[in-house]
Amino acid sequence: MDSKNNSRANLKKYIKVQGKWRFVPVLKQGGVPYPGTVVIDGEPVRSTTGTFYLEYYEDGRRVQRPVGTAPREAKDAWQRQSNPAPESEPSLGADELRPDLITVAVAFQRFLEEVKATKEPATFNAYRADLTWVERRLARMLVSQVTRHEILRLMGKGRDEELDTKTVNRKLIVALMALRNAGAQIAMKKGDWPKVTEPIVEIYEQKEMAGFFRSCTPGERLVFETFLCSGFRAREVATLTWDDVDSQQRALNVRRKPEYGFKPRNHEERTVPVPLKLIDSLNKHKKTHGDSPLIFPTPPHPKRPRYGGNKPDAHHLELCKHIAWRAKLNCRRCAAKKGKCANGPYCEHWTLHKWRHTFATNAIRSEVDVKTLQVMLGHKNLSTTEKYLKSLPAPGLRRKIEKSMMAAILKGK
Q1: What is the pLDDT of residues 204-227, one digit of tens each?
Q2: Spatial CB neighbours of 103, under 8 Å, sequence gap ≥ 6
Q3: Does the predicted TM-score (pTM) go above 0.85?
Q4: Which CATH number is correct for 206-375+384-389, 3.30.420.10, 1.10.443.10, 1.10.472.90, 3.30.590.20?
Q5: What secondary structure letter does DSSP report for 90?
Q6: How far is CA 35 from each of CA 14, 74, 225, 242, 333, rounded to the nearest angstrom?
Q7: N or C: which end of the chain has fewer CB within 10 A?
Q8: Are 245 and 231 in contact (CB under 8 A)?
């Protein structure tokens, strides 16, 4: 779009500034307005409230009319008024942005828009949380002002807040992706990133699982037997349907289910063999709970018979913690955000992903090769699966330790 067309209409916003209502211009780059950001006293500021107005001249007279409160609606109105030629429509790609003009907030917003269009909802939500943390702590406003020093300063902020090193690294990696996507030239040096200690994979031991299952109702037991025997993620269990049960092959399937907004991680559908006992339990459960296509739907509303009961249940984590509390299996030491472990169903020791770790660890110990386990777990990279190899002791290691000099000295006490 040329400058002549760009000047046909201006977009501004009517907002309250320091207690007074006033018109402020919308940020422009290359002649194109970005309604998410306005300019107040020469400084770009992200704005979420107020009414957009289009200003243009018609027959020599100035016209000013409201065009809604939504940024997309305002942008569309500006484009219609400016009447750009289709072949001259400017690219909205991040490579067209000028880092000396674009704010960090706008850069993050545009990056998240692209992520939302191309990635899974879980990825989008995780990126949004990471970028929100970074945005709140960046002292600079413009992308061009964010330097390596700023990134290192944020690492220090993360330590001050006692965040895990791996968590801080992840947040800053996402932020660098968004900033570079907006044209930033930030070169980190070798050694800038703190080393991350890879924790030992924690699993549920047989004794505590026995206590957990003793405190379950039959329906609750089947839910967590499915977690244990399939290694499925939370959403994979929540969206499991009767069509996913392959009784002949004694397996459960993970498949795309657009009706529930579910796509397999990494877009990989897969089939996981499970014990025959689990297949029998599922088929028995179907005889009395087969009205819904879902195996574990949300329970029906107690007072509204036609409400609920046919959506994926998103409360399995809370259920897991309640059963552990009921079975008196809380560690009674941790303190979650919702309350102290000793006082209720808040134990951080009990998580859904730990059932997945237990499945994978026991598969390795049962001599399932790591490549097969990678497929069963739906991992994109083999390195993600290899962490479970740490749980596999070297052949005869226990016998060698008991015959060692150290053991002999202890026996001679």
Answers
A1: 999 999 999 999 999 999 999 999
A2: 27, 37, 44, 46, 141, 142, 143
A3: no
A4: 1.10.443.10
A5: P
A6: 12, 7, 51, 47, 49
A7: C
A8: no
